[in-house]
Amino acid sequence: MAIVVLDTRTTEAKKMLEFLKATRYARVVEENTPNDETISAIKEVESGKVKSYGSAKEMMSVLKKKAGV
């Protein structure tokens, strides 16, 4: 067994990935790794920098009030 890691941000790697998916002899196991923006958001939540609400209705009420709607 061999493991190949592809940086799928490039066009060439995307083409290679599609090629491998189309073959009978390769199995593609995709890893869902969060991007930098998601990692940053997770850190904000963990550090308590995010405001929380009891319900979606409460959140919408606060947002509408701030927007003057």
Structural descriptors:
69 residues; mainly alpha; 3 helices
Describe this structure in words.
The protein has about 70 residues and is mainly alpha-helical. It has one domain (about 10-65). The protein has 3 helices and no strands. The radius of gyration is 21 Å and the shape is elongated.
* Contiguous runs where pLDDT drops below 50 for at least 5 residues: none
Number of domains: 1
What is the terminal-to-terminal distance? Answer: 60 Å
β-sheet strand percentage: under 5%
The helix tally amounts to 3
What's the shape?
Answer: elongated
* Rg value: 21 Å
For the secondary structure, the number of strands is: 0
Main sheet summary = none
Helix % is 40-55%
Structural class by sheet pairing and helices: mainly alpha
Q: From N to C, what is the helix and strand string?
A: HHH
Overall mean confidence score, pLDDT: 92
How is this fold's topology laid out?
Elements: H1 11-22, H2 36-46, H3 56-67
Write a brief structural summary.
The protein has 3 helices and no strands. With 69 residues, the protein is mostly helical.
